[in-house]
Amino acid sequence: MKTGMQKNRRSVPVRKSVPVPTGKPRWWIPESEATPEAVWHDRRRLLRSMGVYGALGASLPALVACGEDESQAAENNSQNNLGLSSEDPSLALYPAGRNEKYVLDRALTEERIATTYNNFYEFGSSKSIHKRAQRLQLRPWEVAIEGLVEKPQVLAIDDLFRQVAFEERLYRHRCVEAWAMAVPWTGFPFAQLVALAKPLESARYVRMTTLLDREMMPGQKAAWYPWPYVEGLTLEEATNELAFLATGIYGKPMPKQNGAPLRLVVPWKYGFKSIKSIVSFEFTAERPVSFWEEVQGAEYGFWANVNPEVPHPRWSQAQERMLGVEGKRETLLYNGYEPEVASLYAGLYESEGDRLYR
Ligand code: MTE
């Protein structure tokens, strides 16, 4: 079966990285073209829990309200509460040297925008959760490496950090809601964790899980979501050179609202794949079912590769808006990372057709 991705094999325009803009942000932003995922999911779940989903399902989009944009989020947030901690025990690891291989075709997003306009449903479904996220306790923090591995282990996060090599990478980040950022992540290649884990030959996927703690993360009291947040990658994806486990951003430890102390970054996929505050890496033979896939698999599937030619069922993905920048840009296939990742999916087109996106 032919897919849009096959038709659209364009090369990626890249040029040298652009310095972080220092001027004032331009707060006026055109209204988002996309329905905010948060509003839509909450209504849909609510309706389902009320037993009226089936009857109203077809007309749901008409119920959706206009969402918060980053100008509103920033107004709601204090400028000096970005979730950065001077007491973070990993502080000495920053800043890490930049890996110059990963260059951007656009300016970096302002730090204040990237750290105050967030999706982290464990703290609520608005974009302005950064203050609420400060209740996340980052130590002690343990990460389990389990499942189909030579020797399952549980590592204290700082012990894990001692066993990997930190670097900084500039990546584009594209949310399924059609907004985008460009950010400097600090962290280490996912391949280093896979090497530590020593998966067995039978392992084909890695399933990642976010901390489950309803007191610390009150959004997890919302019973209509299948907590904890789970995501998955194939082993080939996890060991692709771009797959990154981020521990920091803008040369500092990761703010809580951005997924401290450890989050995934897979820049060729929609942002919901980039699971935050990870406590477990489980190597499996079966494909994991991810959080949003369980909520609404027809709209948020396992592969979730950025593709301008495959619209979300309720909005176009052809364009995106960079947070803090007026106007729209063309969405790039695989978010511009086609040379690095296209080979991962070559065989899948034939067998899975347009399910590649979902
Ligand atoms: N991880 C967890 N645990 N919970 C979430 O709600 N949201 C996802 C992803 N990871 C989410 C998550 C979505 S939809 C996006 S777009 C990115 O995190 C947002 O990352 P950011 O807030 O750092 O921009």
Structural domain tally: 1
- Approximate shape: globular
Major sheet attributes: 7 strands, mixed
**Rg result:** 19 Å
Task: List ligands, each type once.
Answer: ligand MTE
Oligomer status: single chain
Q: Total helix count? A: 10
Kindly report the average pLDDT value. 81
How much beta, percentage-wise? 15-25%
The helical percent reads 10-25%
Order of helices and strands: HHHHHEEHEEHEEHEEEEHEEH
Q: Which regions have little confidence, pLDDT < 50, spanning 5+ residues?
A: 1-67, 75-83
Q: CATH homologous superfamily name? A: Oxidoreductase, molybdopterin-binding domain
CATH topology (level 3) name: Sulfite Oxidase, Chain A, domain 2
Through-space gap between termini = 15 Å
Q: Would you kindly provide a written description of the structure presented here, covering whatever features stand out?
A:
This protein has 358 residues and is of the alpha+beta class. It has a single domain (31-357), classed as Sulfite Oxidase, Chain A, domain 2 (Alpha-Beta Complex). The protein has helices at residues 4-7, 37-49, 53-56, 70-76, 111-114, 157-162, 190-197, 235-238, 291-296, 338-352; strands spanning 142-147, 153-156, 167-174, 179-189, 205-210, 230-234, 244-249, 252-253, 263-265, 278-284, 319-322, 329-330. The strands form two sheets. Strands 3, 4, 7, 8, 9, 11 and 12 form a seven-stranded mixed β-sheet that branches. The protein starts with a helix and ends in a 6-residue tail after the last helix. The site of ligand MTE has 16 residues, from loops. Ligand MTE binds at residues 118-122, 175, 210, 229, 258-259, 271-272, 274-277.
